[in-house]
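Standup, Tuesday
Yesterday: got the pipeline producing structure tokens again.
Today: sanity-check two examples.
Blockers: none.

Example 1:
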Amino acid sequence: MGVLMSKKQQVEKVQKCSIVVSAFKEGLKDRPTVASTGQTEDVVTENGEGSAEGSNQTNTDHAEQKEKDNKQGSLPAQQASALLREENKANQEAWGRLRDGKGVEPEDLKKSHQLTPPAFVRPKRDVNDDKPVDVPLGQRDQPVNDEMCDVCEVWTADDLFPCRMCTRVFHDGCLREMGYLSTEALQEMRETAHTTSGWSCYYCDNVNLLLTEEEMYSLMETFKQCKIIPESCLVSDELLQYRHFVTKQLFDRDLTDEEEEEVLAQFAALDPEKKGQIEWSDFLYHETLSVLQKFRTENSLVRILTAKERDRARAVFQSLDQDKDGIITAGEAKRAQTSWFYKINKESQSCNVSISHVGPISESSPASSSSERSRDKAMENDNRPATWNNFLRESAIYILAARPNSSAMHIHLPL
């Protein structure tokens, strides 16, 4: 299961400790009772008529000793019980945050802040969601960023940091006072918001907010059945067990060897820094995207895309359509989908470069392993035609998967 201990393992360890202590406590309760009965009989036999006073004194002594023993025996049980209650409370709060779409609760939120974090509202499905969407190739959206900070609604020109997905802009001080972003996340925002890779605000970064109440309930029930504890890291064995359970529930069969390799490949894609575990937010976002793929049509996913995302998709398609006939190959479309996960070197970026720029896959990017390179070679032979509308529909899920600021690949292309 790995060297690191997950929160689930910690809870199981506490539960086992509590059971052992409870059994020991019950033994202490029984022992004084037996001794008290025997000694009372001896006092009655020896003292005759005066045995009542001696019996009362004996009972008092044994009661005091029993109370003392119980206090000594119950001390570790109380500590274990308190620890277990604290763990359960933390888990319940984590489930509440998961239901509300907050994902992970930063430590800064435990402090009192002047500004209140936003209340998220989950979307509702519309009757027209599955109908085709007309997104012209030759007409760009060219969205304009908001002029005022989304938090304080004050305009301060160059001090505002834009989101690369939506039109919202923010002051770094407002985000810090709101306490919704950690210090590390704030520093990343300052470094990337004005670059070509850009920065996703807390609305766009959390793709879990795309799920409806019903979809989120279904996902949470799956987590509970698999004993997945929110906000805990997962090692590869836990991800495999989770996938085995889901496959058994959905298809009444076990994972094949090839499917297990796919799971391990996805684990590696979610662990770009090779820590041996995947963060809760990355696991949650990956499962969120799996739900979207399962329950939503491609047309409904296209409707979720923002104007900036549609513009970026146009730029990618037009860069591949060299003869300008509105058609590219399926292999080119697949390679373009992997480009959404490529993060350009921060040091070489300029704020004057278009947000729709997409660079080539570098050797150090998550999509550059030997298996991916062999797959890229296979793509070169896929010359099936792909129109703009087909390209946009098939790419929608990959564009959404690239929203998080994480460097992890939240959708691993099949081998």
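Example 2:
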Amino acid sequence: MDARCITLNNEAVRIGSERLLSHLRREGLNYDLWVTGSDSGSTVHLRVDQLTDSLDSRIRAVLVGTATTLDLATRPGA
């Protein structure tokens, strides 16, 4: 993949991830999300306020099957 294609793919992954997380956002989930990637794949980076084990599991269940790596952590300062 060339750089333009990687950028487009990362944006598509970001939009898709945002849509998948929309019901959790409506429930009050606060997070920062961005995507990085290369020709070998994309990583969804998610920083969440007050990340608990239960919330971690719910987020992972929502994003499973997206063919990406998930970098999930508590938002610094939250």
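Quick observation on example 2: The chain has a mean pLDDT of 94. Residues 23 and 75 are 20 Å apart (CA to CA).
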